[in-house]
Amino acid sequence: MLLNYIKIAWKVLLRHPFYTFITLFGISLTLTVLMVLTSFLDHLIGSHYPENKRDRTLYIMQMRLQDSSRTSNSSGPMSFKFLTDYAKTLKTPERVTITTFINSSNAYVGSQKIKLNTKFTDADFWQVTDFDFLEGKPYNEQNIANGDNVAVITDDLKKQYFENTAEPVVGKDIEIETIHYKIIGVVKASPVTRPFTYADVFFPYTTPKSNYQATGMRGGYVAMILGKNKADLPAIQEEFKSHIDRIPLPGIQDGFKYSVLEVKSVPYLENFLGPLMEGNAGLRTIFFGVITFVLFMLMGLPAINLVNINVSRIMERASEIGIRKAFGAPVRTLVWQFIVENIFITLIGGTIALGLTLIVIRLINTSGMIAYADLTINLNVFIISLIVCLIFGLLSGVLPALRMSKLNIAEALKS
Protein backbone atom coordinates (compact mmCIF):
# COMPACT_ATOMS: atom_id res chain seq x y z
CA MET A 1 0.00 0.00 0.00
CA LEU A 2 2.80 2.40 0.89
CA LEU A 3 4.44 1.80 -2.49
CA ASN A 4 1.13 2.58 -4.22
CA TYR A 5 0.86 5.89 -2.37
CA ILE A 6 4.38 6.82 -3.49
CA LYS A 7 3.56 5.91 -7.13
CA ILE A 8 0.43 8.08 -6.98
CA ALA A 9 2.45 10.97 -5.51
CA TRP A 10 4.98 10.68 -8.33
CA LYS A 11 2.28 10.77 -11.00
CA VAL A 12 0.66 13.80 -9.34
CA LEU A 13 4.02 15.58 -9.43
CA LEU A 14 4.36 14.92 -13.15
CA ARG A 15 0.78 16.06 -13.81
CA HIS A 16 1.41 19.72 -12.82
CA PRO A 17 5.07 20.69 -13.48
CA PHE A 18 4.55 24.31 -12.38
CA TYR A 19 3.05 23.39 -9.00
CA THR A 20 5.77 20.78 -8.63
CA PHE A 21 8.50 23.36 -9.30
CA ILE A 22 7.02 25.86 -6.82
CA THR A 23 6.60 23.16 -4.16
CA LEU A 24 10.08 21.67 -4.55
CA PHE A 25 11.69 25.11 -4.79
CA GLY A 26 10.13 26.21 -1.48
CA ILE A 27 10.99 22.95 0.26
CA SER A 28 14.57 22.72 -1.02
CA LEU A 29 15.37 26.38 -0.31
CA THR A 30 14.02 26.16 3.24
CA LEU A 31 15.78 22.89 3.99
CA THR A 32 19.03 24.17 2.47
CA VAL A 33 19.01 27.09 4.93
CA LEU A 34 18.24 24.73 7.82
CA MET A 35 20.95 22.24 6.80
CA VAL A 36 23.58 24.97 6.46
CA LEU A 37 22.54 26.38 9.84
CA THR A 38 22.70 22.90 11.40
CA SER A 39 26.12 22.32 9.88
CA PHE A 40 27.34 25.65 11.23
CA LEU A 41 26.04 24.92 14.73
CA ASP A 42 27.72 21.51 14.60
CA HIS A 43 30.90 23.30 13.48
CA LEU A 44 30.65 25.60 16.51
CA ILE A 45 29.82 23.13 19.29
CA GLY A 46 30.60 19.64 17.95
CA SER A 47 33.76 17.60 18.48
CA HIS A 48 35.93 18.54 15.51
CA TYR A 49 39.60 19.08 14.69
CA PRO A 50 41.60 19.82 16.70
CA GLU A 51 39.17 19.42 19.63
CA ASN A 52 38.12 15.90 18.73
CA LYS A 53 37.80 14.97 22.42
CA ARG A 54 35.38 17.77 23.25
CA ASP A 55 32.76 15.26 24.42
CA ARG A 56 35.00 14.29 27.35
CA THR A 57 36.56 17.70 27.99
CA LEU A 58 35.63 20.36 30.52
CA TYR A 59 36.53 24.02 29.99
CA ILE A 60 37.45 26.65 32.56
CA MET A 61 36.97 30.01 30.87
CA GLN A 62 36.45 32.67 33.50
CA MET A 63 36.43 33.61 37.14
CA ARG A 64 33.53 35.68 38.48
CA LEU A 65 33.96 37.82 41.57
CA GLN A 66 31.05 39.56 43.30
CA ASP A 67 30.86 41.97 46.21
CA SER A 68 28.87 41.33 49.39
CA SER A 69 25.89 43.41 48.20
CA ARG A 70 25.84 41.40 44.94
CA THR A 71 25.65 44.61 42.91
CA SER A 72 29.17 44.71 41.44
CA ASN A 73 30.91 41.99 39.44
CA SER A 74 34.35 41.38 38.04
CA SER A 75 34.95 38.52 35.64
CA GLY A 76 37.55 37.28 33.19
CA PRO A 77 40.33 34.73 32.63
CA MET A 78 42.61 33.54 35.40
CA SER A 79 46.31 33.59 36.12
CA PHE A 80 48.63 30.73 35.27
CA LYS A 81 49.40 30.31 38.97
CA PHE A 82 45.73 30.05 39.93
CA LEU A 83 45.03 27.35 37.35
CA THR A 84 48.23 25.53 38.30
CA ASP A 85 47.17 25.47 41.96
CA TYR A 86 43.51 24.55 41.48
CA ALA A 87 43.22 22.75 38.12
CA LYS A 88 46.59 21.09 37.52
CA THR A 89 46.39 19.45 40.93
CA LEU A 90 43.21 17.50 40.09
CA LYS A 91 43.60 13.71 40.42
CA THR A 92 40.60 12.45 38.44
CA PRO A 93 41.34 13.81 34.92
CA GLU A 94 43.58 12.17 32.38
CA ARG A 95 45.27 15.48 31.64
CA VAL A 96 44.88 19.24 32.23
CA THR A 97 46.24 21.96 29.96
CA ILE A 98 46.60 25.67 30.65
CA THR A 99 46.60 28.10 27.73
CA THR A 100 45.88 31.70 26.90
CA PHE A 101 43.00 32.76 24.70
CA ILE A 102 44.05 34.73 21.62
CA ASN A 103 46.75 37.41 21.78
CA SER A 104 47.83 39.74 18.98
CA SER A 105 51.34 40.17 17.57
CA ASN A 106 53.02 41.24 14.33
CA ALA A 107 55.67 39.77 12.09
CA TYR A 108 57.33 41.34 9.06
CA VAL A 109 58.42 39.96 5.72
CA GLY A 110 60.41 42.83 4.26
CA SER A 111 58.10 45.83 4.58
CA GLN A 112 54.94 43.72 4.68
CA LYS A 113 53.29 43.36 8.09
CA ILE A 114 51.62 40.08 8.99
CA LYS A 115 49.02 40.33 11.77
CA LEU A 116 49.23 37.26 13.97
CA ASN A 117 47.05 35.60 16.57
CA THR A 118 49.29 33.98 19.15
CA LYS A 119 48.78 31.60 22.05
CA PHE A 120 50.91 30.60 25.05
CA THR A 121 50.43 27.03 26.24
CA ASP A 122 51.95 24.32 28.37
CA ALA A 123 53.22 21.02 26.95
CA ASP A 124 50.00 19.17 27.84
CA PHE A 125 48.15 21.31 25.30
CA TRP A 126 49.37 19.01 22.53
CA GLN A 127 48.08 15.92 24.36
CA VAL A 128 44.61 17.31 25.11
CA THR A 129 44.18 18.50 21.51
CA ASP A 130 44.65 16.53 18.27
CA PHE A 131 46.61 18.86 16.01
CA ASP A 132 47.97 17.37 12.79
CA PHE A 133 51.71 18.01 12.62
CA LEU A 134 52.69 18.50 8.99
CA GLU A 135 56.31 19.06 10.03
CA GLY A 136 58.29 18.57 13.19
CA LYS A 137 56.80 18.05 16.63
CA PRO A 138 55.37 19.99 19.59
CA TYR A 139 57.50 21.55 22.30
CA ASN A 140 57.78 19.46 25.46
CA GLU A 141 58.45 19.86 29.17
CA GLN A 142 62.18 19.98 28.53
CA ASN A 143 61.81 22.96 26.16
CA ILE A 144 59.71 24.69 28.81
CA ALA A 145 62.15 23.90 31.63
CA ASN A 146 65.03 25.24 29.51
CA GLY A 147 63.10 28.40 28.59
CA ASP A 148 63.68 27.70 24.89
CA ASN A 149 62.42 30.33 22.46
CA VAL A 150 60.66 27.86 20.20
CA ALA A 151 57.36 28.07 18.33
CA VAL A 152 54.84 25.95 16.49
CA ILE A 153 53.32 27.72 13.49
CA THR A 154 50.39 26.93 11.19
CA ASP A 155 50.64 25.92 7.56
CA ASP A 156 49.00 29.21 6.58
CA LEU A 157 51.64 31.30 8.37
CA LYS A 158 54.33 29.21 6.70
CA LYS A 159 52.93 30.24 3.29
CA GLN A 160 52.87 33.90 4.31
CA TYR A 161 56.30 34.10 5.95
CA PHE A 162 58.52 31.90 3.82
CA GLU A 163 59.11 32.28 0.09
CA ASN A 164 59.67 28.61 -0.70
CA THR A 165 56.79 26.74 0.91
CA ALA A 166 57.94 23.43 -0.57
CA GLU A 167 60.97 23.35 1.73
CA PRO A 168 60.68 22.22 5.38
CA VAL A 169 60.90 25.11 7.85
CA VAL A 170 61.59 23.19 11.07
CA GLY A 171 64.75 24.59 12.57
CA LYS A 172 64.39 27.93 10.79
CA ASP A 173 64.09 31.29 12.50
CA ILE A 174 60.94 33.44 12.70
CA GLU A 175 60.98 36.96 14.13
CA ILE A 176 57.86 38.12 15.97
CA GLU A 177 57.78 41.46 17.82
CA THR A 178 61.60 41.73 17.53
CA ILE A 179 62.04 38.36 19.27
CA HIS A 180 63.57 35.44 17.38
CA TYR A 181 62.05 31.97 17.73
CA LYS A 182 63.14 28.63 16.39
CA ILE A 183 60.34 26.83 14.55
CA ILE A 184 59.91 23.38 16.07
CA GLY A 185 56.73 22.28 14.27
CA VAL A 186 54.09 23.14 11.65
CA VAL A 187 50.43 22.23 12.21
CA LYS A 188 47.25 22.32 10.19
CA ALA A 189 45.40 25.43 11.35
CA SER A 190 42.38 25.40 13.65
CA PRO A 191 39.23 27.38 12.68
CA VAL A 192 38.83 30.84 14.20
CA THR A 193 35.51 29.70 15.73
CA ARG A 194 37.44 27.52 18.22
CA PRO A 195 39.05 30.11 20.49
CA PHE A 196 40.60 27.56 22.85
CA THR A 197 42.76 26.19 20.03
CA TYR A 198 42.83 28.87 17.31
CA ALA A 199 46.11 30.71 16.70
CA ASP A 200 48.72 31.33 14.02
CA VAL A 201 51.63 30.75 16.38
CA PHE A 202 51.92 28.71 19.59
CA PHE A 203 54.60 29.47 22.19
CA PRO A 204 55.61 27.74 25.44
CA TYR A 205 54.30 29.77 28.37
CA THR A 206 57.89 30.44 29.50
CA THR A 207 58.70 32.53 26.40
CA PRO A 208 58.66 36.36 26.65
CA LYS A 209 55.44 38.36 27.12
CA SER A 210 53.40 35.44 28.45
CA ASN A 211 52.93 37.03 31.90
CA TYR A 212 52.77 33.59 33.48
CA GLN A 213 54.59 34.81 36.61
CA ALA A 214 51.59 36.90 37.78
CA THR A 215 50.84 36.04 41.41
CA GLY A 216 47.19 37.17 41.62
CA MET A 217 44.14 35.10 40.75
CA ARG A 218 43.26 36.99 37.59
CA GLY A 219 45.25 36.90 34.38
CA GLY A 220 44.99 35.83 30.75
CA TYR A 221 44.80 32.04 31.03
CA VAL A 222 42.08 29.42 30.64
CA ALA A 223 42.16 25.65 30.99
CA MET A 224 40.89 22.45 29.38
CA ILE A 225 40.41 19.32 31.49
CA LEU A 226 40.44 16.01 29.64
CA GLY A 227 38.60 13.14 31.30
CA LYS A 228 39.50 9.50 30.81
CA ASN A 229 35.97 9.06 29.53
CA LYS A 230 32.71 11.01 29.42
CA ALA A 231 31.41 9.31 32.57
CA ASP A 232 34.26 10.87 34.60
CA LEU A 233 33.16 14.46 33.95
CA PRO A 234 30.77 14.80 36.94
CA ALA A 235 33.47 13.50 39.29
CA ILE A 236 35.99 15.95 37.82
CA GLN A 237 33.55 18.82 38.26
CA GLU A 238 32.96 17.83 41.88
CA GLU A 239 36.69 17.58 42.60
CA PHE A 240 37.37 20.96 40.99
CA LYS A 241 34.52 22.54 42.95
CA SER A 242 35.97 21.17 46.19
CA HIS A 243 39.30 22.84 45.34
CA ILE A 244 37.58 26.18 44.65
CA ASP A 245 35.53 25.94 47.85
CA ARG A 246 38.77 25.93 49.86
CA ILE A 247 39.61 29.48 48.77
CA PRO A 248 39.07 31.78 51.79
CA LEU A 249 36.38 34.44 51.53
CA PRO A 250 36.08 37.40 51.51
CA GLY A 251 39.13 38.70 49.66
CA ILE A 252 40.58 41.50 47.53
CA GLN A 253 41.64 41.18 43.89
CA ASP A 254 43.12 44.18 42.07
CA GLY A 255 41.42 46.51 44.55
CA PHE A 256 38.03 44.82 44.20
CA LYS A 257 36.58 43.52 47.47
CA TYR A 258 34.69 40.31 46.82
CA SER A 259 32.70 37.91 48.97
CA VAL A 260 31.60 35.56 46.20
CA LEU A 261 34.06 33.68 44.00
CA GLU A 262 32.84 31.43 41.21
CA VAL A 263 34.89 29.35 38.78
CA LYS A 264 33.20 26.54 36.86
CA SER A 265 34.50 23.60 34.88
CA VAL A 266 31.78 22.94 32.30
CA PRO A 267 31.27 21.38 28.84
CA TYR A 268 32.09 23.59 25.87
CA LEU A 269 28.59 24.80 25.01
CA GLU A 270 27.81 25.77 28.60
CA ASN A 271 30.85 28.06 28.62
CA PHE A 272 29.14 30.40 26.20
CA LEU A 273 25.48 29.87 27.06
CA GLY A 274 26.11 29.87 30.82
CA PRO A 275 26.54 33.66 31.25
CA LEU A 276 23.43 34.23 29.12
CA MET A 277 21.29 31.70 31.00
CA GLU A 278 22.43 33.09 34.34
CA GLY A 279 21.90 36.71 33.29
CA ASN A 280 18.84 38.86 33.91
CA ALA A 281 15.40 37.64 32.89
CA GLY A 282 15.03 40.36 30.24
CA LEU A 283 18.16 39.21 28.41
CA ARG A 284 16.99 35.60 28.46
CA THR A 285 13.58 36.64 27.13
CA ILE A 286 15.16 38.54 24.26
CA PHE A 287 17.47 35.62 23.44
CA PHE A 288 14.72 33.01 23.33
CA GLY A 289 12.45 35.46 21.51
CA VAL A 290 15.01 35.88 18.76
CA ILE A 291 15.50 32.10 18.52
CA THR A 292 11.74 31.54 18.29
CA PHE A 293 11.37 34.23 15.63
CA VAL A 294 14.22 32.77 13.54
CA LEU A 295 12.76 29.26 13.77
CA PHE A 296 9.33 30.56 12.78
CA MET A 297 10.78 32.42 9.79
CA LEU A 298 12.79 29.37 8.71
CA MET A 299 10.12 26.71 9.21
CA GLY A 300 6.79 28.33 10.03
CA LEU A 301 6.32 30.67 7.07
CA PRO A 302 7.52 28.16 4.43
CA ALA A 303 5.28 25.51 6.01
CA ILE A 304 2.27 27.88 5.84
CA ASN A 305 2.98 28.66 2.19
CA LEU A 306 3.36 24.98 1.45
CA VAL A 307 0.07 24.23 3.25
CA ASN A 308 -1.73 26.63 0.88
CA ILE A 309 -0.12 24.99 -2.15
CA ASN A 310 -0.99 21.53 -0.85
CA VAL A 311 -4.59 22.53 -0.18
CA SER A 312 -4.92 23.69 -3.80
CA ARG A 313 -3.27 20.50 -5.06
CA ILE A 314 -5.49 18.24 -2.96
CA MET A 315 -8.70 20.09 -3.80
CA GLU A 316 -7.99 19.51 -7.49
CA ARG A 317 -8.32 15.82 -6.68
CA ALA A 318 -11.74 16.26 -5.04
CA SER A 319 -13.46 13.98 -7.54
CA GLU A 320 -10.93 11.23 -6.87
CA ILE A 321 -11.51 11.63 -3.14
CA GLY A 322 -15.29 11.56 -3.61
CA ILE A 323 -15.15 8.33 -5.63
CA ARG A 324 -12.93 6.64 -3.07
CA LYS A 325 -15.23 7.75 -0.24
CA ALA A 326 -18.25 6.50 -2.20
CA PHE A 327 -16.66 3.07 -2.46
CA GLY A 328 -16.10 2.97 1.29
CA ALA A 329 -12.53 4.23 1.73
CA PRO A 330 -12.17 5.24 5.41
CA VAL A 331 -11.13 8.79 6.25
CA ARG A 332 -8.05 7.51 8.11
CA THR A 333 -6.78 5.79 4.96
CA LEU A 334 -7.23 8.94 2.86
CA VAL A 335 -5.51 11.15 5.45
CA TRP A 336 -2.63 8.70 5.71
CA GLN A 337 -2.26 8.61 1.92
CA PHE A 338 -1.93 12.38 1.58
CA ILE A 339 0.48 12.63 4.50
CA VAL A 340 2.68 9.93 2.94
CA GLU A 341 2.54 11.73 -0.40
CA ASN A 342 3.58 15.00 1.22
CA ILE A 343 6.45 13.39 3.14
CA PHE A 344 7.60 11.77 -0.11
CA ILE A 345 7.58 15.16 -1.86
CA THR A 346 9.41 16.72 1.08
CA LEU A 347 12.11 14.04 0.94
CA ILE A 348 12.61 14.78 -2.77
CA GLY A 349 13.03 18.43 -1.83
CA GLY A 350 15.37 17.36 0.94
CA THR A 351 17.52 15.43 -1.54
CA ILE A 352 17.80 18.54 -3.72
CA ALA A 353 18.56 20.59 -0.59
CA LEU A 354 21.34 18.17 0.35
CA GLY A 355 23.08 18.83 -2.97
CA LEU A 356 22.61 22.59 -2.59
CA THR A 357 23.91 22.44 0.99
CA LEU A 358 27.09 20.69 -0.12
CA ILE A 359 27.68 23.46 -2.66
CA VAL A 360 27.02 26.24 -0.10
CA ILE A 361 29.25 24.59 2.51
CA ARG A 362 32.06 24.25 -0.01
CA LEU A 363 31.72 27.94 -0.90
CA ILE A 364 31.84 28.93 2.79
CA ASN A 365 34.88 26.75 3.47
CA THR A 366 36.83 28.16 0.52
CA SER A 367 35.68 31.78 0.73
CA GLY A 368 37.72 32.74 3.79
CA MET A 369 34.66 34.21 5.55
CA ILE A 370 35.52 31.94 8.48
CA ALA A 371 39.26 31.38 8.81
CA TYR A 372 40.12 27.69 8.33
CA ALA A 373 36.40 26.76 8.31
CA ASP A 374 35.63 23.04 8.06
CA LEU A 375 31.83 22.85 7.83
CA THR A 376 30.68 19.36 6.92
CA ILE A 377 27.60 17.20 6.64
CA ASN A 378 28.43 14.41 9.05
CA LEU A 379 26.15 11.74 10.48
CA ASN A 380 24.74 14.04 13.17
CA VAL A 381 23.94 16.79 10.66
CA PHE A 382 22.39 14.26 8.26
CA ILE A 383 20.15 12.71 10.95
CA ILE A 384 19.00 16.13 12.18
CA SER A 385 18.30 17.20 8.60
CA LEU A 386 16.31 14.02 7.96
CA ILE A 387 14.22 14.61 11.09
CA VAL A 388 13.62 18.21 10.00
CA CYS A 389 12.46 16.94 6.57
CA LEU A 390 9.95 14.60 8.20
CA ILE A 391 8.67 17.30 10.57
CA PHE A 392 8.40 19.75 7.70
CA GLY A 393 6.49 17.17 5.66
CA LEU A 394 4.07 16.52 8.52
CA LEU A 395 3.56 20.22 9.30
CA SER A 396 2.68 21.03 5.71
CA GLY A 397 0.67 17.85 5.07
CA VAL A 398 -1.56 17.22 8.08
CA LEU A 399 -3.80 20.30 7.73
CA PRO A 400 -4.56 19.81 3.99
CA ALA A 401 -5.20 16.12 4.62
CA LEU A 402 -7.65 16.89 7.43
CA ARG A 403 -9.44 19.45 5.28
CA MET A 404 -9.71 16.89 2.51
CA SER A 405 -11.20 14.33 4.91
CA LYS A 406 -14.13 16.66 5.64
CA LEU A 407 -15.20 16.88 2.00
CA ASN A 408 -18.83 15.88 1.42
CA ILE A 409 -19.06 13.00 -1.08
CA ALA A 410 -21.74 14.71 -3.22
CA GLU A 411 -19.81 18.00 -3.37
CA ALA A 412 -16.58 16.20 -4.13
CA LEU A 413 -18.13 14.30 -7.05
CA LYS A 414 -19.52 17.54 -8.53
CA SER A 415 -16.11 19.23 -8.61
UniProtKB/TrEMBL annotation:
Pfam families: FtsX, MacB_PCD. Its main location: membrane. Residues 293-409 form the ABC3 transporter permease C-terminal domain. The lineage of its organism: Bacteria, Pseudomonadati, Bacteroidota, Cytophagia, Cytophagales. One of its GO terms (cellular component) is plasma membrane. The chain crosses the membrane at residues 21-41, 286-307, 334-361, 381-402. Residues 20-241 form the MacB-like periplasmic core domain. It comes from the Bacteria. It is a multi-pass membrane protein. PANTHER family: ABC-TYPE MACROLIDE FAMILY EXPORT SYSTEM PERMEASE COMPONENT 2, MEMBRANE COMPONENT OF TRANSPORTER-RELATED. Keywords: Cell membrane, Membrane, Transmembrane, Transmembrane helix. GO terms for molecular function: transmembrane transporter activity. It is found in: Cell membrane. This is ABC transporter permease.
